[in-house]
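URGENT: need a sanity check before tomorrow's submission.

F., can you look over the Carboxyl-terminal protease family protein record below? I want to be sure the sequence and structure line up before it goes out.
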Amino acid sequence: MTGSSQPWRAALAAFFLLSAPWAHAAAPPGKDGGAGRAARAERDDATYRQLEVFARVLSYVENNYVESPDRQKLMYGAIQGMLETLDPHTVFLPPDVYREMKIDTSGEWGGLGIEIARKGERIVVVAPIDDTPAARAGIKAGDELVGIDGERTEGMDVGRALQKMRGPAGGRVLLTIMREGFSAPREIAIIRDHIRIVSVEGALHGGIGHVKVKNFQDRTDLDLRKELDRLRGLNGGRELRGLVLDLRNNPGGLLNEAVAVSDRFLPGNLPIVSTRGRDGRGATVERSKDRDTEKDYPVVVLVNAGSASASEIVAGALQDHGRAAILGTPTFGKGSVQTVIELEDGSGLKLTIARYYTPKGRSIQERGITPDFLVPDAPGGKVPRDVVREKDLQRHFRAEPVASAEPAAPEPKGLPENLAPWDVTAKLEDHPLKVALDYLHGLASAPAPARAAGR
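Structure tokens as predicted:
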């Protein structure tokens, strides 16, 4: 380096070197001899040489770039560049983006209400959140965001795209949208609003409940319990004849809330989800508890390509234990677990630390949850092929090879056989919901042996 190099540059390299996990990790007993230690030392030396190159480039930029660079931008850019070699769910969150992410889990912020992801160099819509400005403006899953307020999004970081769309209620955001069937991109002006996600909403249809869970945030399970009690009250205090648990376009959220919602429908001491980190490290199994369990009425879980992550955990748990029939279209296929680490300057690191598996050991990464009954959005329609799923995201984890002991996903059937005209649902325009309600009505009307649970 040049003579003007400052001591903090050397300290930076030392910090990276000493804070790396391999700098402190002890070798597993009996698995590392002299050859293993030598190989590890060689890797450490190679990493140190690479850090020297990084420090040298930083020095050249600071001392010789045509304009005085912003040090924080340089460092944040270096971190972001490093993480962009990993999976799309591992991201660096600058302080302002990290603050907004913490607000997300509380269920209220100023913005449009769009879940987005990177697909190659493009920003695409995973799903518009129900009853938000984006949904009301007609934004659809699979739409490509070509531009935001006149700025092209090609190569744009997801965090920056979110930052541009969020802000005080009443502000105008101009989205440039490209969609299959469009001859050219179209501009849609949307006014920001207070996005208050009431994560659970319900309705009663002839004694059968329909509960929409929009995402998994703080208190989602508590809100679900209150909504189920409210529906029982509307039903004259009687137990529900069945329940449609609607997870369509639910992008996920907090793992502990997904576990709690699954637990609500399962008897005690059943596995709900297991997680395994690198080389099987940190393996955990979340199990149901024998309290506050709902009665054994029949349940249908509605899913689609916008059902991701925590939604897939719930659908997979109830499917594996035979507690619910899964109806709709294949889910998104995100089978990884992230932890969020708050850093000293108020920024955050969202880091993928494990894969998760259904109770029977199925990995849903790339594959998603396959419904028991394949039901498109419209009668006689087809499952859309242009919707973005995990397998379409750049740098996503590949699905693990199917182990011989891993059960195969169920083969999806067409429409259930017990469907019959029902005046309660005759005017419903939501085709998958109509099919789910008609299916549950048929089960509830059948003799008791036909309603036996599949556990």
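My own read: Confidence is low (pLDDT under 50) at residues 1-11, 13-29, 450-455. The longest helix spans residues 34-64. If you see anything odd, call me.
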